[in-house]
Structure formats: C-alpha cells, structure tokens
Predict the 3D structure of the following.
Amino acid sequence: MHFKLVNHEPRTFVIVFDVGEEVVKTLEEFCIDESVGAAAFKAIGAFSRAVVGYFELATKKYKDIPVNEQVEVLSLIGDVTLYKDQPRLHAHVVLGRSDGSTCGGHLLSAIVKPTLEVVITELPAYLHREMNRDFGIPLIKIDDGF
C-alpha cells in the first residue's frame, strides 16, 4: 500500500493498494497508524476474491457470500468510526462480474488484484459506535458529546 496526504483540512488521503493486500485489515491498520478515528471513504479497483455479507436480523449475524472470481469494484463506500477505542470500518461494496452481472453487500474481506484506489477524508466530529443489543451489532452513537 502506498498513500499520500493530498489535503490538510480536512485531512484527505489517497491510498493505492498493492496486489494481494487484504482490504479491511489494511485500511484499519492505516487508520491506526495515521490516527484516523472518524472518516468517510470511497474506492474503485478490482479484487481476485472477496466475501460480502448480508445481515440477517433474525440471527443477528452476517450471512457470508463468497465471491471466488476476479471482479471489478464498481463502488466501495463506507465510514470509519471508533469502537472500543479502535478504528472500525463499515463498508458496502458492489462488485461487477465478467458477464456484467453484479453482487454486493457488506464488505467482510477482499484481496486486491490488480489495484484498489481509495480516497479517505477525515470527518471533523468524533464518531463512535456502541453495541446495539436489539440487533447485536455496534451502531454509531450520536449523543451530546458528538
């Protein structure tokens, strides 16, 4: 992964992933290294494989949807917030197959091939997540401290 700070206020980074890098883990590590606790991002590129998820309310778990083929990243959008004092990604992706069909969902994991180009912009507010007991997932908490 290579990156460059392209704007100072708000901090905006352009990140270019290398072949074989895992997206979610690498982006979270980047946010730790650069002290990014709240941000929005978007990306395009391609994956050699990925796992997207569909959140099933009844079970409060993600259903894994493996994508075991080369795909274009048509749209990858998400945010970064703090959960248990660590940056956490929430990302949704639409993937294009070679026949023109698409699939998508919550990005659980993905391997880059040949590249992924990400623009991540810090948000000025402190954002954090708290576990929502009704759904069993951490949701953004907006309170007076926001």
